Protein backbone atom coordinates (compact mmCIF):
# COMPACT_ATOMS: atom_id res chain seq x y z
CA UNK A 1 0.00 0.00 0.00
CA UNK A 2 1.27 3.49 -0.83
CA UNK A 3 2.24 5.71 2.13
CA UNK A 4 -0.52 7.96 3.45
CA UNK A 5 -0.34 11.53 2.17
CA UNK A 6 1.15 13.94 4.72
CA UNK A 7 -1.56 16.47 4.03
CA UNK A 8 -5.11 16.05 2.77
CA UNK A 9 -7.02 18.79 1.01
CA UNK A 10 -10.75 19.29 0.53
CA UNK A 11 -12.86 21.95 -1.10
CA UNK A 12 -16.42 21.60 0.25
CA UNK A 13 -19.02 22.34 -2.49
CA UNK A 14 -20.01 26.01 -2.83
CA UNK A 15 -17.76 27.05 0.06
CA UNK A 16 -14.84 28.57 -1.90
CA UNK A 17 -12.81 27.39 1.09
CA UNK A 18 -9.81 25.07 0.85
CA UNK A 19 -9.31 22.86 3.90
CA UNK A 20 -5.78 21.59 4.45
CA UNK A 21 -5.59 18.78 6.98
CA UNK A 22 -2.20 17.93 8.46
CA UNK A 23 -2.02 14.15 8.37
CA UNK A 24 0.65 12.44 10.47
CA UNK A 25 -1.71 11.29 13.22
CA UNK A 26 0.67 8.67 14.65
CA UNK A 27 3.16 11.38 15.66
CA UNK A 28 0.58 14.03 16.57
CA UNK A 29 1.18 15.79 13.23
CA UNK A 30 4.84 16.52 13.96
CA UNK A 31 5.87 18.89 11.20
CA UNK A 32 8.51 17.07 9.19
CA UNK A 33 10.24 19.05 6.47
CA UNK A 34 8.44 16.92 3.88
CA UNK A 35 5.06 17.87 5.42
CA UNK A 36 6.01 21.54 5.64
CA UNK A 37 7.07 21.57 1.96
CA UNK A 38 3.73 20.08 0.92
CA UNK A 39 1.86 22.54 3.15
CA UNK A 40 3.64 25.49 1.58
CA UNK A 41 2.92 24.36 -1.96
CA UNK A 42 -0.75 23.69 -1.13
CA UNK A 43 -1.01 27.18 0.39
CA UNK A 44 0.65 28.81 -2.60
CA UNK A 45 -1.60 27.13 -5.12
CA UNK A 46 -4.72 27.93 -3.07
CA UNK A 47 -3.67 31.58 -2.89
CA UNK A 48 -3.41 31.61 -6.68
CA UNK A 49 -6.65 29.68 -7.31
CA UNK A 50 -9.50 31.99 -8.36
CA UNK A 51 -12.09 29.54 -6.98
CA UNK A 52 -10.68 29.77 -3.43
CA UNK A 53 -11.45 32.71 -1.14
CA UNK A 54 -10.19 31.43 2.22
CA UNK A 55 -8.01 28.62 3.54
CA UNK A 56 -8.46 26.59 6.73
CA UNK A 57 -5.53 24.62 8.17
CA UNK A 58 -6.50 21.90 10.63
CA UNK A 59 -5.25 18.68 12.22
CA UNK A 60 -7.17 15.93 14.00
CA UNK A 61 -9.01 15.78 17.32
CA UNK A 62 -5.83 14.99 19.26
CA UNK A 63 -3.42 17.40 17.65
CA UNK A 64 -3.24 20.39 15.38
CA UNK A 65 0.53 19.82 15.39
CA UNK A 66 2.83 18.89 18.29
CA UNK A 67 5.70 20.88 16.81
CA UNK A 68 8.70 20.29 14.65
CA UNK A 69 9.55 16.63 14.17
CA UNK A 70 11.93 16.18 17.11
CA UNK A 71 13.51 13.09 15.51
CA UNK A 72 14.47 15.20 12.52
CA UNK A 73 15.56 18.20 14.64
CA UNK A 74 17.82 16.04 16.76
CA UNK A 75 19.90 15.11 13.72
CA UNK A 76 20.37 18.66 12.39
CA UNK A 77 23.55 20.67 12.72
CA UNK A 78 23.73 24.47 12.80
CA UNK A 79 24.74 24.80 9.11
CA UNK A 80 21.98 22.47 7.95
CA UNK A 81 19.17 24.17 9.93
CA UNK A 82 20.52 27.58 8.90
CA UNK A 83 20.48 26.68 5.21
CA UNK A 84 17.18 24.84 5.36
CA UNK A 85 15.28 27.64 7.17
CA UNK A 86 12.66 25.20 8.43
CA UNK A 87 9.08 26.64 8.54
CA UNK A 88 10.23 30.07 7.38
CA UNK A 89 8.49 29.78 4.00
CA UNK A 90 5.17 29.07 5.71
CA UNK A 91 5.60 31.50 8.58
CA UNK A 92 6.54 34.40 6.33
CA UNK A 93 4.40 33.20 3.41
CA UNK A 94 1.00 33.21 5.11
CA UNK A 95 1.03 36.94 5.94
CA UNK A 96 2.08 37.72 2.37
CA UNK A 97 -0.76 35.71 0.83
CA UNK A 98 -3.79 37.66 -0.33
CA UNK A 99 -6.36 35.27 1.09
CA UNK A 100 -7.28 34.76 4.74
CA UNK A 101 -5.66 31.67 6.28
CA UNK A 102 -7.36 30.32 9.40
CA UNK A 103 -6.00 27.79 11.87
CA UNK A 104 -8.70 25.46 13.26
CA UNK A 105 -7.02 23.97 16.32
CA UNK A 106 -8.07 20.78 18.11
CA UNK A 107 -5.79 19.29 20.75
CA UNK A 108 -2.07 20.09 20.89
CA UNK A 109 -0.67 23.15 19.13
CA UNK A 110 2.90 23.08 20.40
CA UNK A 111 6.21 24.54 19.34
CA UNK A 112 6.34 24.87 15.57
CA UNK A 113 2.67 23.79 15.47
CA UNK A 114 1.69 26.77 17.61
CA UNK A 115 3.97 29.01 15.55
CA UNK A 116 2.15 27.82 12.44
CA UNK A 117 -1.17 28.79 14.04
CA UNK A 118 0.29 32.15 15.10
CA UNK A 119 1.35 32.83 11.51
CA UNK A 120 -2.25 32.31 10.37
CA UNK A 121 -4.56 35.31 10.07
CA UNK A 122 -6.84 34.11 12.85
CA UNK A 123 -7.25 31.07 15.10
CA UNK A 124 -10.44 29.14 15.89
CA UNK A 125 -10.09 26.40 18.47
CA UNK A 126 -11.98 23.66 20.22
CA UNK A 127 -12.53 23.33 23.95
CA UNK A 128 -9.77 20.67 24.03
CA UNK A 129 -7.07 22.85 22.41
CA UNK A 130 -3.75 23.35 24.21
CA UNK A 131 -1.30 25.98 23.07
CA UNK A 132 2.33 26.06 24.13
CA UNK A 133 5.94 26.77 23.22
CA UNK A 134 7.80 23.95 25.05
CA UNK A 135 11.12 24.45 23.19
CA UNK A 136 12.89 25.42 26.43
CA UNK A 137 12.31 21.86 27.66
CA UNK A 138 14.30 20.56 24.67
CA UNK A 139 17.18 22.95 25.12
CA UNK A 140 16.16 25.33 22.37
CA UNK A 141 13.87 28.31 21.80
CA UNK A 142 11.00 29.03 19.37
CA UNK A 143 12.42 29.64 15.91
CA UNK A 144 9.49 30.28 13.58
CA UNK A 145 8.16 33.57 14.89
CA UNK A 146 6.87 32.36 18.27
CA UNK A 147 8.69 34.81 20.51
CA UNK A 148 7.67 37.79 18.39
CA UNK A 149 4.12 36.87 17.47
CA UNK A 150 3.08 35.58 20.88
CA UNK A 151 4.14 38.85 22.55
CA UNK A 152 2.09 40.79 20.02
CA UNK A 153 -0.87 38.44 20.47
CA UNK A 154 -1.10 38.28 24.28
CA UNK A 155 1.43 40.77 25.68
CA UNK A 156 4.85 40.38 27.26
CA UNK A 157 3.99 38.99 30.70
CA UNK A 158 1.91 36.03 29.49
CA UNK A 159 4.19 35.33 26.51
CA UNK A 160 7.31 35.42 28.67
CA UNK A 161 5.68 33.11 31.18
CA UNK A 162 4.73 30.57 28.50
CA UNK A 163 8.11 30.66 26.75
CA UNK A 164 10.22 30.42 29.91
CA UNK A 165 8.18 27.62 31.51
CA UNK A 166 6.89 25.70 28.49
CA UNK A 167 3.45 25.72 30.16
CA UNK A 168 0.44 25.29 27.93
CA UNK A 169 -2.63 27.50 27.71
CA UNK A 170 -6.18 26.16 27.42
CA UNK A 171 -8.64 27.52 24.89
CA UNK A 172 -10.58 29.30 27.64
CA UNK A 173 -7.43 31.16 28.69
CA UNK A 174 -6.52 31.71 25.05
CA UNK A 175 -9.92 33.22 24.31
CA UNK A 176 -9.66 35.54 27.32
CA UNK A 177 -6.12 36.53 26.32
CA UNK A 178 -7.22 37.47 22.80
CA UNK A 179 -5.08 34.75 21.23
CA UNK A 180 -8.00 33.05 19.48
CA UNK A 181 -11.24 34.32 17.97
CA UNK A 182 -13.76 31.50 18.51
CA UNK A 183 -14.17 28.30 20.50
CA UNK A 184 -16.36 25.27 19.60
CA UNK A 185 -16.82 21.72 20.89
CA UNK A 186 -14.18 19.46 19.25
CA UNK A 187 -16.59 17.60 16.98
CA UNK A 188 -18.06 20.86 15.66
CA UNK A 189 -14.85 22.80 15.13
CA UNK A 190 -14.05 22.08 11.50
CA UNK A 191 -17.60 22.40 10.23
CA UNK A 192 -17.98 25.64 12.17
CA UNK A 193 -14.66 27.01 10.90
CA UNK A 194 -15.89 26.50 7.37
CA UNK A 195 -19.63 27.08 7.53
CA UNK A 196 -20.68 28.94 10.66
CA UNK A 197 -21.82 32.52 10.34
CA UNK A 198 -18.92 34.90 10.04
CA UNK A 199 -16.21 32.25 9.55
CA UNK A 200 -14.23 31.05 6.51
CA UNK A 201 -17.10 30.70 4.05
CA UNK A 202 -18.29 34.18 4.91
CA UNK A 203 -14.81 35.64 4.34
CA UNK A 204 -14.64 33.74 1.04
CA UNK A 205 -18.01 35.18 -0.02
CA UNK A 206 -16.82 38.81 -0.10
CA UNK A 207 -14.89 40.67 -2.77
CA UNK A 208 -11.39 39.14 -3.05
CA UNK A 209 -9.49 42.41 -3.53
CA UNK A 210 -11.37 44.07 -0.66
CA UNK A 211 -10.67 41.16 1.71
CA UNK A 212 -7.00 41.24 0.65
CA UNK A 213 -6.80 44.98 1.40
CA UNK A 214 -8.40 44.49 4.82
CA UNK A 215 -5.95 41.66 5.64
CA UNK A 216 -2.99 43.78 4.57
CA UNK A 217 -4.10 46.74 6.66
CA UNK A 218 -4.61 44.62 9.80
CA UNK A 219 -1.24 42.85 9.43
CA UNK A 220 0.57 46.14 9.04
CA UNK A 221 -0.54 47.11 12.55
CA UNK A 222 2.36 45.00 13.84
CA UNK A 223 4.86 46.57 11.45
CA UNK A 224 4.18 50.30 11.37
CA UNK A 225 3.95 53.21 13.77
CA UNK A 226 0.38 54.24 14.56
CA UNK A 227 0.55 57.28 12.28
CA UNK A 228 2.07 55.31 9.38
CA UNK A 229 -0.47 52.54 9.93
CA UNK A 230 -3.36 54.99 9.89
CA UNK A 231 -1.96 56.57 6.72
CA UNK A 232 -1.72 53.13 5.05
CA UNK A 233 -5.27 52.33 6.13
CA UNK A 234 -6.58 55.62 4.77
CA UNK A 235 -4.94 55.11 1.39
CA UNK A 236 -6.24 51.52 1.13
CA UNK A 237 -9.68 52.74 2.23
CA UNK A 238 -9.73 55.46 -0.44
CA UNK A 239 -8.51 52.86 -2.96
CA UNK A 240 -11.64 50.80 -2.35
CA UNK A 241 -13.65 53.70 -3.81
CA UNK A 242 -12.05 52.99 -7.19
CA UNK A 243 -13.34 49.40 -7.26
CA UNK A 244 -16.42 48.03 -8.98
CA UNK A 245 -17.12 46.15 -5.76
CA UNK A 246 -17.43 49.36 -3.72
CA UNK A 247 -20.03 50.57 -6.20
CA UNK A 248 -21.74 47.18 -6.10
CA UNK A 249 -21.69 46.86 -2.30
CA UNK A 250 -23.07 50.31 -1.60
CA UNK A 251 -25.63 50.14 -4.42
CA UNK A 252 -26.85 46.72 -3.30
CA UNK A 253 -27.29 48.03 0.25
CA UNK A 254 -29.37 50.98 -0.95
CA UNK A 255 -31.43 48.72 -3.23
CA UNK A 256 -31.93 46.25 -0.35
CA UNK A 257 -30.45 43.31 -2.31
CA UNK A 258 -27.52 40.94 -1.94
CA UNK A 259 -24.37 42.21 -3.66
CA UNK A 260 -22.94 40.26 -6.54
CA UNK A 261 -19.19 40.78 -6.22
CA UNK A 262 -17.12 41.28 -9.38
CA UNK A 263 -13.74 40.84 -7.69
CA UNK A 264 -12.80 44.01 -9.48
C1 LIG B 1 8.25 13.83 16.80
C2 LIG B 1 6.48 13.38 18.17
C3 LIG B 1 6.33 14.75 18.47
C4 LIG B 1 7.23 15.67 17.85
C5 LIG B 1 4.83 13.66 19.56
N1 LIG B 1 5.53 12.76 18.86
N2 LIG B 1 5.30 14.89 19.34
N3 LIG B 1 7.43 12.94 17.35
N4 LIG B 1 8.17 15.16 17.02
N5 LIG B 1 7.15 16.98 18.05
C6 LIG B 1 5.32 11.30 18.83
C7 LIG B 1 5.75 10.62 20.12
O1 LIG B 1 7.14 10.41 20.11
C8 LIG B 1 4.96 9.35 20.06
O2 LIG B 1 5.60 8.45 19.17
C9 LIG B 1 3.66 9.77 19.40
O3 LIG B 1 3.94 11.00 18.73
C10 LIG B 1 2.55 10.03 20.40
O4 LIG B 1 3.03 10.95 21.38
P1 LIG B 1 3.01 10.67 22.95
O5 LIG B 1 4.08 11.50 23.55
O6 LIG B 1 3.00 9.21 23.23
O7 LIG B 1 1.56 11.25 23.31
P2 LIG B 1 1.09 11.86 24.70
O8 LIG B 1 1.59 11.03 25.84
O9 LIG B 1 -0.38 12.05 24.53
O10 LIG B 1 1.81 13.28 24.83
C11 LIG B 1 1.47 14.31 23.94
C12 LIG B 1 2.52 15.46 24.01
C13 LIG B 1 3.94 14.88 23.78
C14 LIG B 1 2.44 16.13 25.40
C15 LIG B 1 2.15 16.48 22.95
O11 LIG B 1 3.92 14.06 22.61
C16 LIG B 1 5.00 15.92 23.58
O12 LIG B 1 5.44 16.55 24.53
N6 LIG B 1 5.46 16.10 22.33
C17 LIG B 1 6.54 17.02 22.01
C18 LIG B 1 6.04 18.43 21.97
C19 LIG B 1 7.18 19.42 21.71
O13 LIG B 1 8.17 19.44 22.46
N7 LIG B 1 7.06 20.21 20.64
C20 LIG B 1 8.08 21.21 20.30
C21 LIG B 1 9.02 20.62 19.31
S1 LIG B 1 10.37 21.73 18.98
P3 LIG B 1 5.84 6.92 19.56
O14 LIG B 1 6.68 6.40 18.44
O15 LIG B 1 6.48 6.91 20.91
O16 LIG B 1 4.44 6.36 19.59
C22 LIG B 1 9.76 22.80 17.84
C23 LIG B 1 10.72 23.82 17.36
C24 LIG B 1 10.12 24.66 16.27
O17 LIG B 1 8.64 22.73 17.45
C25 LIG B 1 11.19 25.52 15.67
C26 LIG B 1 10.73 26.14 14.37
C27 LIG B 1 11.84 26.74 13.55
Strand order of the biggest β-sheet: 1-2-3-5-7-10
Order of helices and strands: EEHEEHHHEEHEEHHEHEHHHHH
Query: What structural class do the secondary elements suggest?
Result: alpha/beta
- In total, the number of strands is 10
How does the overall form come out from the CA principal axes? Answer: globular
* Ends apart, CA distance between termini: 47 Å
The helix tally amounts to 13
Which ligands accompany this protein?
Answer: hexanoyl-coenzyme A
- Tell me, rounded to a whole number, the average pLDDT: 96
Largest sheet, described in full? Answer: 6 strands, mixed
Low-confidence runs of at least 5 consecutive residues? none
Which percent bin holds the helix content?
Answer: 40-55%
The share of residues in extended strands comes to 5-15%
How would you sum up this structure, described in words?
This protein has 264 residues and is of the alpha/beta class. 47% of the residues lie in helices and 15% in strands. The chain contains 13 helices and ten strands. The strands form two sheets. A six-stranded mixed sheet has the order 1-2-3-5-7-10, sandwiched between helices. A four-stranded mixed sheet has the order 4-6-8-9. Helix 1 (33-48) runs parallel beside helix 4 and helix 5 crosses helix 6 (146-154). The longest helix has 16 residues, at 33-48. The relative contact order is 0.12. The protein binds hexanoyl-coenzyme A (HXC).
Amino acid sequence: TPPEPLILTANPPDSHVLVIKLNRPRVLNALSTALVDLLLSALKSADADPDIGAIVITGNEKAFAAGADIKELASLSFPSIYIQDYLRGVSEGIPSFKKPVIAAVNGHALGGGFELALACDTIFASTNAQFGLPEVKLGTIPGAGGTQRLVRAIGKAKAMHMILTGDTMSSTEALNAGLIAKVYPPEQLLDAAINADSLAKTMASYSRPIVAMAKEAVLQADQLSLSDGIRLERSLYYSTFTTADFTEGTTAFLQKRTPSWKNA
